[in-house]
Amino acid sequence: MTDSLQPTADPIPLSVWSNPWHNLAFGLGSGTLPKAPGTWGSLVALAFVPLWQILPDWGYGLVIMLSMLFGIWLCGKVARDLGVHDHEGIVWDEFAGIWITFWLVPAGWYWLLLGFVVFRLLDILKPWPISWVDRHVHGGLGIMLDDILAGFAACGLMHLAVLWLG
């Protein structure tokens, strides 16, 4: 899924407001915004990062693991419900990707800003192997996996930035 400044191609289903699974998959409604739903979803997910960062490292890791496993099921279910491969308003994958980005990264607004930009660039540009996964893996796993990979790549880059910029 690419993120662009064009309005969403798929119509927003009304079920986003009445079905709790659809609402979660659409990032608590952030995926319904008409321009750049992935960026809006990432921004909403970013608001949770300071909460996850006060957890012990293993607790934050558990949040990541559960968000990935739940997301594979959730995104697959909602895509099937809507009869589409990957509706661009489904942004739970961005939630998981952003949360992965900040695992074991120090707290601070500048790290949040840098990590947000790094994750969004990787998610939008989809360097290899993220681009391959995006094209060849389908279903809930396919919706989630490119953002999971972008999140881990962004996390690695953030750890390098922490070492370099300290």
UniProtKB/TrEMBL annotation:
<dbReference type="InterPro" id="IPR007686">
    <property type="entry name" value="YutG/PgpA"/>
</dbReference>
<keyword id="KW-0595">Phospholipid degradation</keyword>
<comment type="pathway">
    <text>Phospholipid metabolism; phosphatidylglycerol biosynthesis; phosphatidylglycerol from CDP-diacylglycerol: step 2/2.</text>
</comment>
<feature type="transmembrane region" description="Helical">
    <location>
        <begin position="58"/>
        <end position="76"/>
    </location>
</feature>
<dbReference type="Pfam" id="PF04608">
    <property type="entry name" value="PgpA"/>
</dbReference>
<dbReference type="GO" id="GO:0008962">
    <property type="term" value="F:phosphatidylglycerophosphatase activity"/>
</dbReference>
<dbReference type="GO" id="GO:0046872">
    <property type="term" value="F:metal ion binding"/>
</dbReference>
<dbReference type="InterPro" id="IPR026037">
    <property type="entry name" value="PgpA"/>
</dbReference>
<keyword id="KW-0812">Transmembrane</keyword>
<keyword id="KW-1133">Transmembrane helix</keyword>
<comment type="function">
    <text>Lipid phosphatase which dephosphorylates phosphatidylglycerophosphate (PGP) to phosphatidylglycerol (PG).</text>
</comment>
<dbReference type="GO" id="GO:0005886">
    <property type="term" value="C:plasma membrane"/>
</dbReference>
<keyword id="KW-0460">Magnesium</keyword>
<feature type="transmembrane region" description="Helical">
    <location>
        <begin position="97"/>
        <end position="122"/>
    </location>
</feature>
<feature type="transmembrane region" description="Helical">
    <location>
        <begin position="142"/>
        <end position="165"/>
    </location>
</feature>
<keyword id="KW-0472">Membrane</keyword>
<dbReference type="GO" id="GO:0009395">
    <property type="term" value="P:phospholipid catabolic process"/>
</dbReference>
<keyword id="KW-1208">Phospholipid metabolism</keyword>
<keyword id="KW-0442">Lipid degradation</keyword>
<keyword id="KW-0479">Metal-binding</keyword>
<dbReference type="GO" id="GO:0006655">
    <property type="term" value="P:phosphatidylglycerol biosynthetic process"/>
</dbReference>
<keyword id="KW-1003">Cell membrane</keyword>
<keyword id="KW-0443">Lipid metabolism</keyword>
<protein>
    <recommendedName>
        <fullName>Phosphatidylglycerophosphatase A</fullName>
        <ecNumber>3.1.3.27</ecNumber>
    </recommendedName>
</protein>
<keyword id="KW-0378">Hydrolase</keyword>
<feature type="domain" description="YutG/PgpA">
    <location>
        <begin position="25"/>
        <end position="161"/>
    </location>
</feature>
<dbReference type="InterPro" id="IPR036681">
    <property type="entry name" value="PgpA-like_sf"/>
</dbReference>
<keyword id="KW-0997">Cell inner membrane</keyword>
